[in-house]
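As described in the Methods, two query proteins were run sequentially through the folding procedure within a single session, without resetting any intermediate state between them. The first query and its resulting structure tokens are shown here.
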Amino acid sequence: MAREAMQKLTQWEDVRYFLAVVRQGSFSGAARALATDQSTVSRRIALLEHALGQPLFERGPRTVRRTPQAEALLDAAQAVERAVLAMEDAASRAEAEPRGRVRIALTEGLAQHVVVPRILPGLFAAHPELAIDLRTGDEVLDLARHEADVSVRFFRPARGELVGQRVARLPLAVLVAKRARKRWAGRSIGELPWTSYVKDDLETPESRMLARLGVGRTRLACSSVETQLAAVRAGLGVAVAPRALTLALPDLAALDLPEAPDLGTLELFVVTRAALRKVPRVAVVYDALVEALRALDPSRAEV
């Protein structure tokens, strides 16, 4: 049944939409993963179901469930995906010069304060035929599934077809607006106006740090790190963040708290697929990221 059904999948896009819904568990999640809208995903799946003559998903109010027919197609669809992605990698390796588009997955803060001002001007000047897509956000895009070409991550990549390297260790500190530093100097941890970054009620590295400091309640909670930093820069409070931000944002300073425990460090990695590491357009982006991000590590001589 699966082989006969797959013969009717005449476009790679059919497989891509089908697998996105399977992996995300909803049409809305698939739309976000594919950078499209939910109505497009719903329409494409409906057309696919019509072409196959069988339902693939049972629709619910917020999620969808795979039907037995979808389960029967899954292995074949994944095989198609692997073949197409292998062809894309083979085509990329045939490049001779750094030209074409490179997709970088990273946080909004790294994009705004490091990559855009410090890396992209030099890259575009040296390689005028290069194009960049910045995929910003806190969600981890899957390099193996070609959701991005290069990723800047705060965790070590899994082994396999991914290659990468740690480029910096970033000590954490309590950051405050320079103009507000005198106002809060000498205050105890409990007296400081803390801000926090919250993500769908999930525990974040920052929430763990605040717990270590004994901070039970914050004055301001933000669902965006950049909004939190804007609040700190406006003098509304303090935040646990990488000390290196004071290099990118001169209006921020570290607030010394003698009674505070060591807050630890964040490790920063640059990662790509092994098949792309030597592709010229990817290699120049990868190397530029490594060089610039290394400068954020205070243990390195050039800082």
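Immediately afterward, the second query was submitted; its sequence and tokens are:
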Amino acid sequence: MTPRGGAYSDSREKAAAPRANVPRLRRRSKRSLRARLRTYWVLAAFVAAASAYALWSLVTSPLFRLQSLDVVGLSRVSRADVVARAAIDPSANIWLVDKAAIEGRIERLPFVHSAHVHRALPAHVRIAIVERVPDGCLVGRDGAFTIDADQRVLQPGCADPRLTVYRRDDLPAAPTGAFLHDEALARLRADARTLGTAVRYRSFGFGRFGDLEATMPDGIVVRFGDDRDLTAKAALVDPILAQIQARLGRVVAIDLRAPAAPVVQYR
């Protein structure tokens, strides 16, 4: 009879035997991102090179080079001047050119108020121009030049003899295209707008003491003094002229600096 201890030992050996024959499974480690990238770097480099070539081909394609250029809104400005200022490279992709820079160059032309560049597929350009309108002739210390409502100098001399004349004898000449930003001129223009509905005046300026003076087409100077109550003062002019109709040819000036007691000056 086998001892209990021996039987016990034998049964443990039998139970342990099958475990000894079971193979161990190895755990697979996760590949790093760097390792995966090393595997596909050739493919990635090829895709990048192909993309770069496709982009380069698109950018330099003759299909997007300037095919037509239309300029609209011109009256005083010549098309040649606009095209020269636009300076669009005919070999460049029009969709990559700096549109704001083109507009800025064109707007440096004195008579151009604004320029807008419009592009259409595949390579058509349309430039819409809004021109400046002459607002008056400014007679300064060094001669006359034409200005617009923004006080921009449009050209030397007076563009139209029918324009209102503003006299600023102490104002030096300014280069064509410059903005004056003159407060006294702005005041003259404001007074001219106020008086425009009463009697048509040919020119406006300031007298020796800074008082407003307006000259009528027949050369009569109306001295308004300060520019308060201009409408009320201007309403006195027609009745005065009606009273002195017989001596109108001898009138030099009408002084309204004291509206209650106007004075007529004769030759």
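The chain has three domains: 62-131, 133-180, 182-267. We note this only descriptively and draw no conclusion about the first query from it.
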